Amino acid sequence: MTKILAIDDRQDNLIILSAILKNSIANCTIITAQSGIEGLKKAEQELPDTILLDIIMPQMDGYEVCAKLKANKATSHIPVIMITAIKTESTDITKGLDTGADAFLGKPIDESVLIAQVNTAIRIKKAEDKLRDQQGLLETLIQERTSELRQSEKKYRTLLETTSQGCWQINPERKIIEVNPALCKMLVYSRQEMLGKTALDFVDDENKKIFIEQSAKISSTKHRSYEIFLKKKTGEDLPAHFNATTIRDESGNIQGAFAFISDITELKRAEKEKEELRHQLIQAQKMEAIGTLAGGIAHDFNNILSSVLGYTELALFDVDKKTVLHDNLTEALVAGNRAKELVKQLLTLSRHDTSETRPLGINSLVKEALKMLRSTIPTSIEIKENICNEQLVIQADPTRINQVIVNLAVNAKHAMSDTGGVLAVDVRPVTVDKNTANKYTDAAPGDYARITVSDTGTGIEEKNLYKIFDPYFTTKEKGKGTGLGLSVVHGIIKHHKGYITVKSEPGKGTTFNVFLPLTRQHSEKLPPESAGPLPKGTERILVVDDELMITDLLQQILERLGYTVTALVSSIDALEAFRSSPDAFDLVITDMTMPKMSGDMLAGEIKKIRPDIPVILCTGFSDKINGRPGPEFQINEFLMKPANTAKLAKTIRNVLDGKSC
């Protein structure tokens, strides 16, 4: 039975933690405490396998509790995971580590990260408990057996033959004079193959230094405890823990040394998993930080772009297409649209984009993306497709998923630009079990479509693998990339509740595996957009935006389309104007972010006066908006800034005509 102690001064937090842990960890008992003092007492009484500790508590905060836990011999070995609702700075992490904390989690708690951290802590504790128990037992056995060995060779032989721990004994010349079956099994050598050899015969050059240093201590230290990598007969490495004791005769002369040798492969694996989870947590924190920054600048930047693109379009309406001025304005419009796409990438990175998802057949989308890419990839690079026949359907935004495939393929192209090679794309269904999901912070057990994009290019150095999803990190030459590609890929995949893994080796290429959850729904096809003249009208429109440039721009565009426009830069003034003449308008177009009264609040007040008035809400960015209008918004349609004239005209006409956009 696994025991977990949760310490938090809030009962509701303890209830949530208990529910999550009991639902995800089998045979789990949750012990709770609502103060640091109560937690210290229960920790010593119950000796749990892991402790979840809130930092902010009255009387005694989490740092003090952690320090007392680690200072208490009875509880010092128990892993402590600190939980905080405040922004975690590096100084906070350092302070927690100084008090002995093993990991950090932020609130609100990501369930997958919590369970992964707890499982890792439990595995490490069990491995350490086993090693501690074995070491304590072995120390006792060594002390007891040293005197008995002089009296009974039979007892000594029984110990060697029956213990599950590896054992060997060396003489004063450092040669092995005894070895037990357990060690022979560990190293895949027979007893005769090991006798007469030295410890140096079972290590590589790097680990020989450790044995030489430890051998030099035989005469000066009675006990030695250290880790080393032994070499099996098969050539494989065996991580081992040595607990060695110097053997002396009654006169104090050194007779050699005896060592118990433990296989610590599982402990090393658990430590590696813990380190990987730590890197994933740091990565998640970096992405959250850049996401906050991206969201913060998006609103203002999109207002600026709306003016630039809108006034450029207006100018193009009045300029002869055969003039140099028309060409220059067209280039300015192209540049503005590039900036618009860059903002979209930033919003995707921050997971604040308003993309719509639908059931999508990933097989055909990947094929179409590769078909489009063939013309941009040089002939020195061979493209190999291996797409399964089974139709795989995911809930996704086709534009965003296409962006993932294109970015990964372009990344592979750059890796092979000098030497050529093979770009391989594989699509197939996979089932991710609980154990595999626990290794990744964004993963959950279930059925996925796995998209594998691999290349035979230059590869990525290990020191850079943890940085490749960082915004603006790039190994490309200056001018050959923004460093946003893989960051955007990471953001899109996480937004779609999937995850991505990467394997790479310098000189041998790179493999990305994208996992996207499968859905049981049937894939849909979007109708093609119809081309034609801009839809116009004669209705009366109230336009509200706190930016004068935007209201002037919208007024000019809408009047060109035939509408009668009243433009105001204050939501309060707009409400008063509507209240005084509610029947003077057929449509309201309002910005979302405005001082004193936001666009959604204005829409709500207007609807109270006249429920049938249609409202279009415009925004460059808002946390409140994610997708299509819902019952919580008193509006008929969202319009993301910057919107071109065609999109604006179509949206207005559809709303006025009662059509869905």
How would you describe the overall organization of this protein?
- A hairpin with a 5-residue loop joins strand 9 (about 235-250) and strand 10.
- By secondary structure, the protein is of the alpha/beta class.
- The strands form five sheets. Strands 2-1-3-4-5 form a five-stranded parallel β-sheet, sandwiched between helices. A five-stranded antiparallel β-sheet has the order 7-6-10-9-8, sandwiched between helices. It has a five-stranded mixed β-sheet with strand order 12-14-15-17-16.
- It contains 20 helices and 22 strands.
**Gyration radius, rounded:** 34 Å
Helix content: 40-55%
Rounded mean pLDDT score: 82
Quick one: how many beta strands? 22
Number of discrete helical segments: 20
Low-confidence stretches: 472-484, 526-531
**Structural class designation:** alpha/beta
Distance between the termini: 56 Å
Keyphrases for this structure?
661 residues; five-stranded antiparallel β-sheet; alpha/beta; 22 strands; 20 helices; five-stranded parallel β-sheet; single chain
Helix and strand arrangement:
Layout lengths: L1 E6 L3 H14 L3 E6 L2 H11 L3 E5 L7 H10 L8 E5 L5 H10 L3 E4 L4 H41 L1 H10 L3 E5 L5 E4 L1 H7 L3 H4 L10 H11 L7 E9 L5 E12 L5 E10 L1 H53 L6 H26 L8 E4 H12 L7 E7 L5 E4 L1 H18 L5 E12 L1 H4 L8 E10 L6 H4 L19 H11 L3 E7 L3 E9 L22 E5 L3 H13 L3 E5 L2 H10 L6 E5 L7 H11 L5 E5 L17 E4 L4 H12 L5
Parallel strand pairs: 1-2, 1-3, 3-4, 4-5, 12-14, 18-19, 18-20, 20-21, 21-22
Antiparallel strand pairs: 6-7, 6-10, 8-9, 9-10, 11-13, 14-15, 15-17, 16-17
Helix pairs in contact: 2-3, 3-4, 5-6, 5-10, 10-11, 10-17, 11-16, 12-13, 13-16, 18-19
